[in-house]
Amino acid sequence: MKRSLYLFHLCLFLTASLWAGNPDRQGEAGAVQLLLNPWASSAGLHSMNTSFVRGVEAIRVNPAGMARVNKTEFSLGSANYLQGADIQLNALGLTQKVGENSAFGFSLMSVNFGDILVTTTELPDPDPDGPTYNINFFNIGLSYAHVFENKVSVGVTLRGISESTSDVSSFGFAVDAGVQYVTGEDDNFKFGIALRNVGSRMSFTGQGLATNAQAADGDAYNLTLSQRSAGFELPSMLNIGASYDFLIAEGTHRLTALGNFTANSFSRDQIGVGVEYALKERFMLRGAYKLEVDADVTQESVYTGPSAGASISVPLSKERKSNTLSIDYAYRTTKVWDGTHNFGIRINL
């Protein structure tokens, strides 16, 4: 127990030593795909379940929760990002428990922008039947988590980030780290900290940055000049969350209340609250509300406001009721377009 308390207080010390970003830097970070959540269960809570998320979705929200998976979990997620913008998020993930207290995880997420018409300075209004190109955004994560004395769990994710077209590309690395602490007579109270998207600067390279220019002194030939793109930082953030489970009728009903604070390095900080109701852990309803600190209506981010979701879990075996198939759905309102719809399937073995 002393070791668990030491780790918990160490995480609190590290958190206190961090400072939130300057809102004047809003929009300066790149690789914004790292801020998108393709998983429906956590999206229904605005990704604010830092303190109690578990399984595959923990790889995105707080890797410490990955260690509390039963044995094996496989998940598929899809999101219609900003309904009407024709942008699709797709993801898959796998977590596997190793021994009594450790777990490994793998996740892959891609962003599909569809076919985009080619435009040039000579043809700013392209032919609808003209040539198209694709933008390829994806990130891959490898995670490890461990539980100490069933009270404190810690986890880390190493993530590779790729953004490219046919002639321009960029690649970088990011690290997520988190901790969860569980206490109370029935492990009712949970506390979590997650530091996300800390990594290398990224910049674009490739033939697409080359231009042709006439040689000096009026020579009759042209030179190919390579341009260097400016580097950009990753959108790092710190999440601090707490939750409490109200168990009713000997655990038949569970009502979880949560609160979360997000310190963003390149935008305003955010606070939010949420609630999740579960009936025998087979049917779940959830909802949350998030807002930005010191921001007026014109400055709020796209996901300021309410979110909601639901899950249905059915057992795959009468003998082992922990083997389940779950279907998740979430909806988040947005300031522009018509919101984001998330769908997911989870298999626990």
Topology:
Elements: H1 2-16, H2 40-43, H3 58-61, E1 72-81, E2 87-98, E3 102-112, E4 116-117, E5 132-133, E6 136-148, E7 152-164, E8 169-183, E9 189-199, E10 210-214, E11 222-226, E12 237-248, E13 253-264, E14 270-279, E15 283-292, E16 305-315, E17 324-332, E18 340-348
Provide structural commentary.
With 349 residues, the chain is mainly β. It has one domain (2-19, 31-211, 223-348): Outer membrane protein transport protein (OMPP1/FadL/TodX) (Porin, Beta Barrel). Helix content is 7%, strand content 49%. It contains three helices and 18 strands. The chain has helices at residues 2-16, 40-43, 58-61; strands at 72-81, 87-98, 102-112, 116-117, 132-133, 136-148, 152-164, 169-183, 189-199, 210-214, 222-226, 237-248, 253-264, 270-279, 283-292, 305-315, 324-332, 340-348. Strands 1-2-3-6-7-8-9-12-13-14-15-16-17-18 form a 14-stranded antiparallel β-barrel. It has a two-stranded antiparallel sheet with strand order 4-5. Strands 10-11 form a two-stranded antiparallel sheet.
Can you give me a brief rundown of this structure?
The protein has 349 residues and is mostly beta strands.
Fill in the keyword field for this structure.
14-stranded antiparallel barrel, 7% helix, Porin, 349 residues, elongated
